[in-house]
Amino acid sequence: MNSPDLRDQLDSLPTEAFRAELAEIDRLPTLDIARLMNGEDAGVPAAVAAQLPLIAVVIDAVAERMARGGRLVYAGAGTAGRLGVLDASECPPTFNTAPEQVVGLIAGGPEAVITSVEGAEDSRELAERDLAALSLTSADTVIGVSASGRTPYAVGAVEYARSRGALTVGLACNPGSALAAAAEHGIEVVVGPELLTGSTRLKAGTAQKLVLNMVSTITMIRLGKTYGNLMVDVRASNEKLRARSRRIVALATGAADDEIEAALAAADGEVKHAILVLLAGVDGPTAARLLEESGGHLRAALAATSG
Predict the structure, then answer these.
(1) Which site among 79, 169, 198, 258 is 20 to 30 Å from 63 CA-CA?
(2) Cα angle value 76/119/184 (rounded, 5°)
């Protein structure tokens, strides 16, 4: 694609539009700029809300596949890629997922998380190579993320994943995007022009973060990674998380501190198991067996003991 064509394409995108009314924003007092920016951000949740029915369909489809052992893979470039990497990296400590269950791919590889890798976002072939290394199956889901909805890396990732039979989702911030068209499910959160022309790390980035939060969090709820609104699969890898683990068990059971410590010891530190030990009056190995039989769903394991 030559430069004039690309410029014409960018000129047509709402996220790239120039806003003449903000042309002298640099001359305003700092508080006024902050108020403007805050006002811009306030419209993002409404744009996400307009896509909630589609987002819910995607989440149910992702959860069904992950329950069968599938993986959730995000693929994007620049800010979009970094947001995917961030969301994926937070799943293991929050939901005790294996590192390979939720994967974030960014054009240019791990180096691109902190440093711009020139030309990486323009390569469909790079996306194919990155995904080929994962040996995709029909149980996997690939979500291409791109504010513009035209980034070759994200579009190429979705097209390759679809050719391999994986579930595909295109998350963009412009209507009628190539990314949404390439995917089985297209989610277009239209946030409009940015405060700084073309700086899609702003409203578009916020919108993408909100959607990725929903996809990963609600998928994990569907997979039994929570009990009510408690993170019962949290991985206690540091002192703060160990304290949080004890607090979660207390909130779920109302047990005394000494009972909680004993239950956690019997459950090898596993929060979900410890809760079952306390609420069902079973030992650690029995709790582990019941949870395995229930697919990790604590409510189902509790129901099995009561009935």
Answers:
(1) 79
(2) 30
Report the predicted TM-score, pTM, of the whole model to 2 decimal places: 0.91
Decide if 90 is catalytic: yes
Among 16, 40, 121, 194, the one annotated catalytic: 121
Scanning the structure block, which residue is given the tokens 């911030």? 173
Q: What is the mean pLDDT of each run of 10 residues along the chain (307 residues)?
A: 58 82 94 96 97 98 97 96 97 93 95 82 90 97 97 97 98 97 98 92 97 98 96 85 92 97 94 96 96 96 88
Concatenated DSSP letters of 76-115:
ESHHHHHHHHHHHHHHHHHH---TTTEEEEETT-GGGGTS
Going by their DSSP bridges, the two strands 141-146 and 167-172 should be labelled as: parallel
Strand order in the sheet with 102-106: 102-106, 72-76, 141-146, 167-172, 185-188
Q: Is 184 a catalytic residue?
A: no
